[in-house]
Known about the structure:
Pfam family, one: Peripla_BP_2
Protein name: ABC transporter substrate-binding protein
Number of helices: 12
Strand order of the largest sheet: 3-2-1-4-5
Domain Fe/B12 periplasmic-binding: 44-293
Organism: Paenirhodobacter huangdaonensis
Oligomer: single chain
CATH superfamily of the largest domain: Nitrogenase molybdenum iron protein domain
Mean pLDDT: 87
Strand content: 5-15%
Structural class: alpha/beta
Amino acid sequence: MAPRTAPSTSGFVRRSERHKGWRALALAAALMLAPPAAAEMPRRVVSINLCTDQLAMLLAAPGQLVSVSNLARDPLASAMAERAAAYPENHGLAEEVFSLRPDLVLAGTFTSPATTGLLRRLGVPVETFAPASDMAAVRAEILAMGTALGRDEAARAMVAQFDADLAALRADPATGPRAALYYANSYSLGDKTLSGQILAAAGFRNVGAEAGLSIGGTLPLEVLILAHPDLIVSGQRYPGASRSEEVLDHPALAALGTASARAAMADRDWICGTPYVLRAVRALRAARDGLTE
Length: 293
């Protein structure tokens, strides 16, 4: 009688291997379809730009922001100078910033490429923000900062409040008074700029735009005089003397001022695309209301 042989297991092994293969494929598909894991919130954030300083101070979680630029403490340029005093300052130098051991650096698109480039080569993540050119960019910058800091919900809430406050302040410029933005060296701004949109939100027609400026450029004094605006808006005068500002004291402009109102606005509310631009709109609305009294 022939010896009995053990039943072959090769079929079972092949089926088991096939099942393992299917399970591996199913797992891979599930991983591909699953939403990406949320990026870890940065814990040591350093800002080296005036505008990112302020957005970060508005949105960062307690203890998350460890340093802001020295410009953030300048009351002429920063809308948050007092609050910035609570943070260690930096001067935007790569070596200085690296020594703070940041896991995220916030910079502007005009920050020194040597600084941002060296930090990136040292393995430090750097997020850059462009200057806001209109009200839509203000919203976008707030949301982008929220994403960079892992604070998206806070950023969305800030944008919602910004939109509500802007809607409450906004006036139609179509039939409103005419205003000219006029600065040192006869510099002015058109309607495709953040300053131009602040002017429009307050209900003013832009004399610079009427003269052909869409962005920034020179508005000759003669053109300004002939335009005869209802309001001339200029920035704050800085300490010291500058030949570039002499045009603001020109006798012809002084004579025009007897018939046109002049308003010196705080530069700090106009420079950066933050919710503080609403203070500029509010100040202009007050000036507009004063013209009709």
